[in-house]
Amino acid sequence: xxxxxxxxxxxxxxxxxxxxxxxxxxxxxxxxxxxxxxxxxxxxxxxxxxxxxxxxxxxxxxxxxxxxxxxxxxxxxxxxxxxxxxxxxxxxxxxxxxxxxxxxxxxxxxxxxxxxxxxxxxxxxxxxxxxxxxxxxxxxxxxxxxxxxxxxxxxxxxxxxxxxxxxxxxxxxxxxxxxxxxxxxxxxxxxxxxxxxxxxxxxxxxxxxxxxxxxxxxxxxxxxxxxxxxxxxxxxxxxxxxxxxxxxxxxxxxxxxxxxxxxxxxxxxxxxxxxxxxxxxxxxxxxxxxxxxxxxxxxxxxxxxxxxxxxxxxxxxxxxxxxxxxxxxxxxxxxxxxxxxxxxxxxxxxxxxxxxxxxxxxxxxxxxxxxxxxxxxxxxxxxxxxxxxxxxxxxxxxxxxxxxxxxxxxxxxxxxxxxxxxxxxxxxxxxxxxxxxxxxxxxxxxxxxxxxxxxxxxxxxxxxxxxxxxxxxxxxxxxxxxxxxxxxxxxxxxxxxxxxxxxx
Length: 504
Fold this sequence. Notes:
Number of domains: 2
Strand order of the largest sheet: 7-5-8-1-9-12-2-13
Largest sheet: 8 strands, mixed
CATH architecture of the largest domain: 3-Layer(aba) Sandwich
Structural class: alpha/beta
Number of helices: 15
CATH topology of the largest domain: Alkaline Phosphatase, subunit A
Radius of gyration: 23 Å
CATH class of the largest domain: Alpha Beta
CATH superfamily of the largest domain: Alkaline Phosphatase, subunit A
Shape: globular
């Protein structure tokens, strides 16, 4: 028999050390841009842009190719990100109302802090909190974080104009890099604490008004950009008449996509380049403090953006450019890291809070609609959702729509039928038509697919009917979006959803 010596313990000790590292709560960094679509990054196939730090993050972790926002507008999407709930359960949207405090108290930052995490937030917070339905507006939740660099409303690109970030203004006059510096400094302080941390940074960029950091002016100077395959008005003629009734349509021209495309896109991508630099600052800080190996990084955007596709600008509508956004997750503790993994699983912004809570080893409340994304890190070929609902109840009433998407198909129902409009449907085979160039709704060859997607739609609407908040007129949409109800029988319910408009 081999003698029992300390040397023989080495393999066992190695296993124990590995298990201990896995059991230790990780640090979590959640990074979110504003108005960024997938086509803005090298790791998503754009050879026109420079995103070296994002591309490295993609290579280190797992990149998701079918990630959607359930609502493609800032305020509603950010409330969903923080709470893991669809908009009809948060009740939060520019046009309907603010987030009730009881919802906020179930957000991932609050729950993590209660569980002993050191928490920090910087950037655009994106929504207001009230003390109850239709209640009094509360101050920004600065005191719900240990470190605060957040701001009200849209915040400013001028760092000096963001009260909580003024100390960075001299060195970083543009806000994007100031947030990188905030992250760097927080990481240095957090490394001294005997507790895990969660750092959330919400960049304002590349949200309009386009205001790039001038130190990066040379990056895309004089560059000609490849236009998307669905660029221009001619590639949007098959869209519903309803979709053309708001600012998304006119901004194709007013924002320069029609006649100044290269100039506009150079500025847009320059702003994302600055985000990329800020991410490099944050990762360098993790390495400098020796804590990179226990820090999970998540990168995404609050919604996508039309940059001339189909002859539209801006966001909101349930098409791919508006609703499909980047998602990268890097967990350095995982054996699959560094393998340049990709997943085509259907995922959404409802999944972030369940994922973050699960990473921290915390219970995920049953009221959340999302699912932990980390099983996909272990098996990128797996699936976690069959369908995701895509919601728009903002803007011109005609553009309000409910859609449902699977990995391969998308169905959109446009219910508005007043003022010469007729309710209409759109169906896209995303597996064959990723640019949504052919509406298959009336194609007999897609009759079975159409029926199946309508069933999925009805299931999502049933969830809405059952779980929507009783305030901010969200219950009225359960009737308004019911495709089996004639307009004459639901017009009052549909228009009721506009009666409490709270545009900001």
